[in-house]
Amino acid sequence: MNKKISLGLALSLVAISIAVTFILTSFFSLQSYNEKVVDVNAKSKKYSALQAMDTQVRKSYYGNITENKLNVGILKGYVNGLDDKYSRFLSAEEYLSQQNIDSGMQFGGFTLAQDESGYIRISSIVADCPAYSAGLREGDIITAVGDVKVIESGFDSAVDALNGTEGSEVKLTVRRDGFDKTIQFTRSNVELITASGEMLAQYIGYISLTGFKNNTPDQFISILERLTTNGAKSLVIDLRNNIGGTIDALQQCLDPLLPEGVAVSADYTDDRTETVVYSDASELDLPIVVIVNEKTTGEGELFAAALRDAGKAKIVGSRTYGKGLMQETIPFDNGTAVILTVAEYYTPVTGKFNGKGITPDIIAENDDMSSDFQYFKAIETLREWDQQ
């Protein structure tokens, strides 16, 4: 038999429901409001401190203030405050340079580092670029750029003087073996070669990958097709000193080697997980040995781990660097940008490796620098694999 409730009881239940809803809504609204107040107060203190500093500097600083440099410095300092070695703010000039680097182009054809002496040191240089043809070599110390002396102007200012319009001339004072000489060359953008290869004995194809730039996939696939067409029965892929690069380039290089499935995923700060590298069903059916070392970084580590996780390769060498964090470049309207760590990578079997690196299947250390033990161990591993 159905039981009926009185109108008064029904109204009471509705009132209680409305009251509970109001209390819960008020509680969460108050909580959100308090969080916002705390956030506003924290921001107010931060900006007040910055304003106080700016006021004092403009009042007391004995020197000229360049507003653009000051603003860039403030933003660089903000990102530096994150204490993340992979995140950094880029000025408009630095962002243009970074875009060139990601594309596989390098201004001048060489990379720079600050020497312990305070001068500029050439840390690497592309053979046959204009600077190399003019006589510049890896390890050279730049003491002056034109009339700009490195020690007097500072490292950053001297590097700025080195940059310039493509096609223009630049004159460097270079110190080598204790002697100074002048080297002059034409500024130019040089395409970087990040993939190279050759056929070894017993139809072993050898490919070296030093990074994953936007032009790397074309270079890599061209070499891969040449080696397989010429009868390669196995591959050695050398990732030693691979500095990483872009995830898109990694995807294009891995895809022809892997079976269909998820190769690399990423966890984001908002508890979101995304697949960042997925391979189609087409795969290369050849034994592969990957060589790594302690300078194999980022996308280089992902390349090795993804191949091993899919059962496509064995890893030979020493434990890798351990950079498993994903950076995103976020541009701003004024031409500047920020490179920001936004996620952590992992592969299906290896998992997350940030800070600990990837352990090879076969540990091989190059203790004797006169011979490449890691390389020969990779060849030996392939031959043993072929005999199984």
Describe this structure in words.
The strands form four sheets. Strands 3, 4, 5, 6, 7 and 8 form a six-stranded antiparallel sheet that branches. Strands 10-11-12-15-16-19 form a six-stranded mixed sheet, with helices on both faces. The protein folds into three domains: 7-55; 106-190, PDZ domain (Pdz3 Domain), CATH 2.30.42; 193-387, 2-enoyl-CoA Hydratase, Chain A, domain 1 (Alpha-Beta Complex). It contains ten helices and 19 strands. With 388 residues, the chain is α+β, with helices and mostly antiparallel strands. The protein has helices spanning 7-60, 67-80, 92-103, 130-133, 150-153, 155-162, 216-229, 247-254, 299-309, 373-387, and strands at 88-90, 105-107, 110-114, 120-125, 141-145, 148-149, 169-176, 179-186, 189-191, 195-200, 204-209, 234-238, 261-268, 273-279, 288-292, 313-317, 325-331, 337-346, 362-363. The chain starts with 6 loop residues before the first helix and ends with a helix.
